[in-house]
Specification:
By secondary structure, the protein is α+β, with helices and mostly antiparallel strands. It has three domains: 193 residues, Histidine kinase-like ATPase, C-terminal domain (Heat Shock Protein 90); 128 residues, Ribosomal Protein S5, domain 2 (2-Layer Sandwich), CATH 3.30.230; 184 residues, Ribosomal Protein S8, Chain: A, domain 1, CATH 3.30.1370. Helices cover 34% and strands 22% of the residues. It is built from 20 helices and 25 strands. Strand 10 and strand 11 form a beta hairpin. Helix 1 packs across helix 4, helix 9 packs parallel to helix 10 and helix 14 packs antiparallel against helix 18.
């Protein structure tokens, strides 16, 4: 077959296949053009999932009548000052978006320059450009796309249901709205009876305040209440944004938003940095919520490696990753013992009269919307009322019914009264008042109460001590250990023994001294002093399993951090152990002094806080 030159319409349709994959891709290109035009408000209209009609209206700078033909011509742009592709400083540059969309649809572009008396319009149908004609329109630009892909019917077969396509459009608008809080966005769905689906008014306030308000509008109030600010710079790199606390996590990475010079991207390097920063702060199968904005010179990043610009390539990728990891870790450490308030909302909902009948899978309600006014107050059962009369008389000297005596022999209620003079306001986590089910510590704060999971809280404290031994300076730095009078033999498989022996030197720094004992066993000679009375056979088997899972980790410290989590779990105060008031208060004070003590080394929350306002809602005082 002889070589021939393709017709212009076919060239545009091929380009459209790269740029306009689905209606959401067309929306992305058009909205980015509006942002680049300096718009303060952008209104998007959608019908039939974008297949029938797409409209994007903005109040930007507009286009002059002589610019309209160039706007729908391939490889024409106003967004590149010179001939250097690395100098792209805008969002919408491709030089192909409008002509590509026009090649597969019926497109009408109407625009009026600010300060001009008239508006002008141009049409493109299946790649055929019409004349420029006068039109009526306020300052700004309106782009209407009808019958998307009518010129390439084969592409229509690959589109999903209108609802699915609409969800992709929503995602595009939300991503762009988060990066530009100063612009108002509206998404309207339907024809004559159109309804607003998304509405983000232009940001009020300045800087981080406006950005956090926009992020909370998109990601939910939980994120706004439980996010920490991220700000760091290194040379020409600058990182800002907000990251959710480790106890605020999701089953997928869908709610991780990353931006490079204001452009939303999906980059494996950046997602890997997020996993590294949160590695020992949450469960392995959970993902944090965050929105990060990276700014760097255009010469340091290539944004043209993907037709839709959703992937980028950095000149110094390791510097970018290092900045992200250190900035996130610093922000999370600065949060101290703070944990997310989502557990509080779930606790309040569980206490409500309707909480018992609510399905377990339902989302927890926000504190401000607990529906006490819609349900009659709960009545205690007769049996409960009868048991309650025991408590209604004057207190005698005997121990209160149903409460174990404290280790000192005093009734628990007397032990609590003994510390009643302490000032809860002096401590963020309050003063211990009781232990519940030998598992939870009840502490009173100046403005409410706190329930602490004693095992989860102590596990984080022990874990941080183990982790500090890994990075302690000097080859002889190690945690205190205690020798076993009779070394314990633990039977294992050959591969497990080899893995443990290979890491014996690093394990010795953590206080665990072991050696090979034949081909299928190890001999444990010393254990970390922090462990106390641990089941060594279970501990050693757990460590061998951890090393097997992390065998491909890039560095020894990365492998052993997971080992530290196992050691901490085995060496922590267990549920079911009675604690004195002094021990409980000591645990609370240590939590206040150790960063990230709001969750254990496996990511579970260490405490839940109920404010006084929450308690008043429970008893209908407000």
């Amino acid at each position: 077959m002889a070589i021939r030159r393709l017709p212009e319409t076919l060239i545009n349709q091929i380009a459209a296949g790269e740029v306009v994959e689905r209606p959401a891709a067309a929306v992305k290109e058009l909205v980015e053009n509006a942002i680049d035009a300096g718009a303060g408000r952008i209104d998007i209209g959608v019908r039939d999932g974008g297949r029938a009609v797409l409209t994007v209206v903005d109040d930007g700078c507009g286009l002059a009548p002589d610019e309209l033909p160039l706007a729908v011509e391939r490889h024409a742009t106003s967004k590149l000052p010179g001939d250097d592709l690395m100098a792209v400083a805008t969002l919408g540059f491709r030089g192909e978006a409008l002509p590509s969309i026009g090649a597969v649809s019926r497109l009408m572009l109407t625009s009026r320059v600010r300060g001009a008396a008239d508006a002008w319009s141009i049409t493109v149908e299946g790649g055929v450009v019409g004349p420029v004609v006068p039109a009526a329109h306020p300052p700004g630009t309106r782009i209407e796309v009808r019958d998307l892909f009518y010129a390439v019917p084969a592409r229509l077969k690959f589109l999903k249901a209108p609802r699915t396509e609409l969800e992709h459009i929503e995602d595009v608008i939300q991503r762009l709205a988060m990066a530009h809080p100063g612009i108002g966005f509206t998404l309207t769905v339907g024809g004559d009876n159109a309804r607003p689906l998304l509405r983000f008014p232009s940001g009020q306030g300045s800087g981080d305040q406006a950005r956090l308000a926009r992020l909370a509008a998109v990601l939910g109030r939980d994120f706004g209440d439980n996010a920490v600010a991220v700000a760091a710079s290194r040379g020409d790199l600058a990182l800002s944004g907000f990251a959710g606390l480790p106890t605020l996590h999701r089953p997928t990475s869908r709610e991780q938003y990353l931006y490079v010079n204001g452009r939303p991207v999906r980059d494996k390097l950046l997602f890997g940095a997020v996993r590294g920063a949160y590695g020992d702060l949450m469960p392995r199968d959970r993902h944090p919520m965050l929105a990060l904005f990276l700014a760097l010179p255009g010469a340091e990043v290539d944004v043209n490696v993907h037709p839709a610009k959703i992937e980028v390539r950095f000149r110094d990728a390791q510097a970018v990753r290092g900045l992200m990891v250190s900035a996130l870790r610093q922000a999370l450490a600065g949060a101290g013992h703070r944990a997310s308030a989502t557990g509080t909302a779930a606790a309040v909902a569980a206490f409500s009269p309707s909480g018992a009948s609510a399905p377990a899978s339902s989302a927890p309600q926000s504190l401000g919307s607990t529906p006490f006014s819609h349900h009659p107050p709960a009545r205690p059962s007769p049996a409960l009322a009868e048991r309650a009369t025991v408590w209604q008389g004057p207190l005698g000297s005997a121990a209160l019914p149903g409460l174990d005596a404290a280790p000192s022999g005093r009734p628990a209620v007397e032990a609590v009264a003994a510390v009643g003079a302490a000032m809860p306001a002096a401590y963020p986590l309050g003063v211990a008042r009781a232990q519940i089910h030998k598992t939870y510590i009840l502490a009173e704060t100046a403005d409410g109460l706190i329930l602490v999971d004693q095992h989860a809280a102590h596990e984080r404290l022990v874990y941080e001590r183990f982790k500090a031994a890994l990075i302690a300076p000097g080859p002889d730095a190690r945690l205190p250990s205690q020798g076993l009078l009779i070394p314990e033999v633990v039977e294992l498989g050959g591969p497990a023994v080899r893995r443990l022996v290979a890491e014996a030197g690093a394990l010795a720094r953590l206080g665990l001294v072991l050696e090979s004992f034949g081909s299928g066993a190890v001999l444990v000679r010393e254990v970390p002093a922090l462990l106390g009375h641990a089941d060594l056979s279970v501990l050693v088997r757990d460590l061998a399993d951890q090393l097997a899972e992390l065998d491909q980790a890039p560095a020894l410290v990365d492998r052993l951090q997971a080992v530290c989590a196992s050691l901490a779990c085995h060496g922590s105060v267990r549920a079911g152990r009675s604690l004195t008031i002094e021990e409980m208060n000591a645990l609370l004070r240590q939590m206040e002094a150790v960063p990230q003590s709001g969750q254990c080394s496996h990511g579970r929350p260490a405490y839940v806080e109920l404010k006084r306002a929450d308690l008043e809602r429970l008893f209908e005082r407000r």
